Amino acid sequence: MNPARPRPGDVIVQLDALGDAEARAIDFRAGDALFSLIVVRRGDLVRAYENVCPHAAQPLDRPDGRVAIDAGGFLVCAMHGASFHIASGACASGPADAPLTPFAIVVTGGAVVAA
What we know:
Elements lengths: L10 E4 L7 E9 L2 E10 L2 E6 L17 E2 L4 E3 L6 E3 L5 E3 L11 E4 L2 E4 L1
Antiparallel strand pairs: 1-10, 2-3, 3-4, 5-6, 6-7, 7-8, 9-10
């Protein structure tokens, strides 16, 4: 198991740090290990996915750490343009043929927390 992976109860991000219809990469480090999540908020819906596109095993985020959300409301991989449903992580179009890997969270006390 990746030692940088957040454990249940670890705070991922404060909810008010995410705007409505915003997706952002959040990196966690433990020594040389890195674990990256995509946290997306759309209204009351908040989801987290591992920041790995199933097409090319590359991060979805742009250099600024943000993940594009297109006009149709899909997460878009910065590398090859694969798009994914926000609510399920399922691939909607593009070169990916598998869904994003979900990461279990809960929203409590104004924070997004690993479940």
